[in-house]
Design brief:
single chain; mainly beta; Immunoglobulin-like; Glucose Permease (Domain IIA); 2 domains; 4-stranded antiparallel sheet; 21 strands; 14% helix
Length: 278
Amino acid sequence: MPGSKLLVALVLLATPWLATALPRPDPVPGGVAVLTLPAGFDAAAQASFAGKPVLTVPVDDGWRALVGIPLGQTPGPAALRLRFADGRTRNIGFTVAAREYPVQRLTITDQDKVTPSAASLKRIEREQVEILAAFRHRSTPAPQLRFAMPAQGPLSSNFGLRRVINGQPRSPHSGIDIAAPAGAPVTAPAPGRVLRVGDYFFTGNTVFVDHGQGLVTLYCHLSSVAVREGQQLVTGDAIGKVGSTGRATGPHLHWALSLNDARVDPRLFLVTETQAAR
């Protein structure tokens, strides 16, 4: 409809982070710092944070670094390390602001999913090697930075929640949960390549998608998987269907996004602020 196209155009013009296709800046633990790089930085230069390569993108007035900030990062001064093609190095300072995430209390009836047995712990240890390797994967293609929602439904758990399961503190929630019904479609939110498909103890049927340069997304608890490793995806392609495999209290999609091996709030990459606020 012409009116809706005009509305989208006006939103893009009024919202700089959308018009330049960059994620919404939120320099907190679990967020993204968008840093302006100095003159002289180009495609041959490199940026790193905490020893890990950082995604850099050209924009109209130079280059930006997109720094994923780990949930465990201590608030306060931080630094991006730059290395230029001629060997020069430079630090770009920025501040990580504090963010207090709420507590979420859950009850899981399968006790092995809360306090795993010795056999389950061995399985978890094996799987962690694969999972961490996927998150740390880095390919050369430049990623698209405007994402759509991979499933339709309200959010049942926000990013960063400090989880207490059956009265026991556990790791923070490193993604968002979308409360879609069992069997609902899960689709690619942006172009990418299927990096890994697996059935894991905690996340059940799981798909990792590589979007390029250290930007990796994760889709968990699927009832079925519709992709194979190495498959190229475009926005809207089927990934699988919503389920409750692994450690889950009911059908939902757990969607996570990793940037330079830091799990960050995927809503920062959504196309519209309306989606990001859901």
